[in-house]
Specification:
This is F-box domain-containing protein. Pfam families: b-prop_At3g26010-like, F-box. InterPro entries: At3g26010-like (IPR055290), Beta-prop_At3g26010-like (IPR056592), F-box-like_dom_sf (IPR036047), F-box_dom (IPR001810). This protein has about 400 residues and is mostly beta strands. The protein folds into three domains: about 5-50, no CATH class; about 55-245 and about 365-385, no CATH class; about 250-355, no CATH class. Helix content is about 10%, strand content about 40%. The protein contains five helices and 30 strands. The protein has helices at about 15-25, 30-35, 40-45, 50, 305; strands at about 5, 15, 60-65, 70-75, 95-100, 105-110, 120, 120-125, 130-135, 140, 145-150, 160-170, 175-185, 190-195, 210-215, 215-220, 225-230, 240-245, 260-265, 270-275, 280-285, 295-300, 315, 320-325, 325-330, 335-340, 345-350, 355-360, 370, 390. It has a five-stranded antiparallel beta sheet with strand order 5-6-8-9-30, with no helix packed on it. Strands 11-12-13-14 form a four-stranded antiparallel beta sheet, with no helix packed on it. A four-stranded antiparallel beta sheet has the order 15-16-17-18, with no helix packed on it. A hairpin with a 6-residue loop joins strand 12 (about 160-170) and strand 13 (about 175-185). The longest helix is centred in the first third of the chain and has 10 residues, at about 30-35. The protein is globular, with a radius of gyration of 22 Å.
Length: about 400
């Protein structure tokens, strides 16, 4: 079939403008299905001349106003109703807490009346397909330890998702916490396995830090301005892990750690975006390889021009320094950096192409960036019982 023409069967070809008009009226979910049936329609989505007129995915931010409250979405584009971002298709748990999101999947922690404080329950769902999977229970250590749970999913690498539950023990003398072990769940075989090969006092903490899954490697930003890499977790119970440094400015003490950046990716390459020492410029770095490689500075983005001011740091009486904004997510494929502006209490997007800020919504919350993915959960590779539900 001619990829430049629309074809609705029986040899009937439509002009491009008429095909585009038909496709533009479809909900995004239906458009995704249409692309799978005709290579000509698929070519429209990759053509810059047409893509602005085609249905857009419901990109946005999921958030809760309080723990266990209803899940809401702050959309970057009009909602056509294709996706249930409120997660109403999930069972009615006693409480539900948004935990993480990654490439269209959402991870939540949930509780039941019979829940024990020594057991964690997680569910992974896809708002685009309304599928959900309850993970087997995982045990928690006695009170005093902390946990950081990360969802990893990259459909370009594998149809399966992974959940990492990092246990971090706090040194009773020092202020820092460090990873003691990691429970890893794979949807390939629907089981958890334990990675406990960690050096004592490693001073690695990933709590509240961003992460990226690229080419089967999980990259996690640490609180000490380094990158932790976990590799070979998909086909072995002995993952490898190593560390390399982040580029640019490194805070000299917790008093000035407000200028830490954010890990991201573009075209399969690891990126890092960080404010400079005064917060007036965002520096965009790209890594040219790992474990051996270098960070290369790609862009300088003027926050002074975007906000119309030159002072972004405030020093407080207790010695702490705060920045007027914080990076909350990146979508470098779409040329966007997302910021929270503390004084205005707003969630904003910054366009790399225009240098302009756009308000998304008022209010400071814990926001999880969401881009829909219409692929279905694949069948697991074992015969073990597992809850996989769909409409």
């Amino acid at each position: 079939m001619d990829a430049d023409s629309g074809d609705f069967g029986s040899g009937n070809k439509l002009p491009d403008d008429l095909t585009l008009d038909v496709l533009s009226r479809l909900p995004y979910k239906s458009f995704c299905r249409a692309k799978c049936t005709c290579t000509g329609w698929l070519s429209f989505s990759s053509n810059p001349h047409y893509c602005d007129k085609l249905p857009k995915p419901l990109t946005g931010f999921l958030y809760q106003k309080s723990d266990s409250s209803a899940v809401e979405v702050a959309s970057l584009c009009p909602d056509d109703g294709s996706f249930d971002t409120s997660l109403s298709f999930l069972p009615r748990y006693e409480w539900l807490e948004l935990t993480d999101s990654c490439n269209g999947l959402v991870l939540c922690k949930y509780g039941r009346n019979t829940s024990s404080p020594s057991v964690a329950h997680f569910v992974v769902c896809n708002p685009a397909t309304r599928q959900w999977m309850e993970l087997p229970e995982t045990l928690l250590e006695p009170e005093g330890d902390s946990y950081a749970t990360k969802l990893a999913f990259d459909p370009s690498w594998s149809p399966y998702f992974y959940v990492f539950n990092f246990e971090e023990k706090r040194n009773p003398v020092e202020r820092w916490a460090c990873i003691s072990k990691v429970a890893i769940f794979s949807s390939r075989n629907s089981t958890w396995f334990m990675d406990d090969k960690w050096e004592p006092s490693n001073q690695i903490s990933v709590d509240c830090q961003p992460h990226v899954l690229l080419g089967g490697k999980l990259f996690l930003q640490t609180s000490s301005c380094r990158v932790l890499v976990i590799d070979a977790f998909d086909n072995t119970e002995q993952p490898s892990h190593w560390i390399f440094d982040l580029p640019g400015y490194k805070p000299t003490s917790p008093m000035v750690d407000c200028l830490t950046g954010y890990l991201g990716h573009k075209s399969g390459v690891l990126h890092y975006v960080q404010p400079d020492t005064g917060g007036r410029t965002l520096l965009v770095w790209a890594r040219d390889g790992y474990p051996h490689g270098h960070w290369n500075l790609k862009h300088r983005l003027s926050m002074s021009d975007a906000f119309g001011q030159n002072i972004f740091l405030d020093e407080h009486f207790d010695g702490f320094v705060s920045c007027h904004y914080d990076i909350v997510s990146l979508d470098l494929e779409r040329g966007l950096v997302f910021l929270c502006h503390f004084a205005a209490e707003r969630l904003l997007s910054y366009s790399l192409s225009t240098g302009k800020l756009t308000k998304i919504r008022d209010g400071l919350r814990r926001y999880l960036y969401y881009v829909p993915n219409c692929s279905m959960f694949p069948a697991k590779e074992t015969d073990k019982d597992q809850d996989v539900s769909e409409p």
